[in-house]
Design goal:
Glycosyltransferase; two-stranded antiparallel sheet; 17 helices; 41% helix; DUF2264_N; DUF2264 domain-containing protein; UCP014753
Amino acid sequence: MQKEISAQPRPTIPYEHPDAAMYLKLFKENLIRLRHKKPAYCRHDEAIRQVFDSNSDTYQVSLQEQCEQLVRYITEAFEHYAVWDYTHAYYPGRPSQQTARTDAMEGVSRVLPTLAAWLHANGETTTVISGLNNKAIDVAELLRTAFLAGTNPEHKGYWGQLHDYDQRICESADLALALWLSKAWVWDSFSSIQQQQIAAWFKQVNTCQTVDNNWHLFPLTVQLVLKALTGEDTIAHDKYARIKEFYVGDGWFRDGARGNYDYYNAWGFFYSLYWLDQIDPAFDSEFIRHSLSTFVEKFRYFFTAEGVPFFGRSVCYRLAASAPLLAAIDTPDPCLSVGEAKRAFRTSLEYFIRQGAFQHGAPTQGVFADDPRLVDNYSGPASSFWSLRALNIALFSGARSGLWQTDEVPLEIEKGDFSFEVPAIEASIIGTFKTKEVVVIFHNDYISEQSPFTRRLARQLWSKRILEKLLGRAERPKNNLLRKGVTCYTSKMFHFF
């Protein structure tokens, strides 16, 4: 029996139900995007693919070196796409439901944590990273410029006035994390007036309503960062209490009272909870670490060297699946070996990247290469940078957790067959050693009325594609297979092909 969670009515969110004024704004912002966008930057796409091709004799490098090369690749392309003092970046790709400007803000907010994590790991030696084109980029100066410009109402790149259910509430959490990670090189270099300006922009989240799901973690992240940086405590404990209401046991959270159990548990809930614990270990470490350990004890069985049984939304965030494993080995009492976490992380990166998961300096909008069937309407050209969430933890904690130095050990599927239940989400997990395949089977249907045609991945109509290009607003079909009634998912991932 699944846990009953009290539900709240879903609010009417403007970008989901645009009126004439919203359509006009979308059209105008799309014109601005067309004016400022730059050519797709694909100079080193093949080079980064080869770095992660374990079958190549030329590019046999360590995991640490692979991650360093990936950050160099990302930083070089980011500088190419960035505009207005690194406050926005117009990446090529399919738009979200939000405006083109919001999509461009994601091009910054979802990249800066990676740059800040790199700076945290390397800043005592150097703040300068060289792109794969060997151009030197001062990461600390880049971050300082972005934060001062983005929070300045008089600057063209101002990140704006936040409102209820605003996508920028989500993005503010990543920006706050980047500010915390880079504190010694960025925040501490600002004057008192500059710090007040930056803090004032972030404090907007304190008065904004959010969707009643994992979104409660975004203002909490901002508030814990502000407390750590300024000493001012505005933490919304009611939001955290609501997050804990979504916890159903076995390490799993439901993504809202009527939401799914899916991979957001890995790259949404536990990624954010890990950072809350890092920012303030006194916040609620007992629950965070216990639930993480409980989750990872079984979730580690999901990983194979060639694929993961993805289910739910946002499959384009696929490279972040191993984030909870890397978080777990950075705790006082890890529930898995560092060698196993390392193998899950490395093989996941290699499998997807050598199949085309990076193009034009960014993670593709799909599972492998771009696939419009798999891009949710809330995802824009840079949304897939959430794929870097496992990388961010690796950069931040790899030296102290032993990730870089430890030898890999086999994954559970590489050791033998297994079969077990996860009662809290009513699912069976089956591993077959001979085929190296892991299958997840849910014991209930999300919808009762379905057919082979309603369960398939729908394609975007040409009329919708034209409208999407004209307005710069997503007009794609919804293809969350869980909500279509698909109950069986395999690491072979053929259901996404």
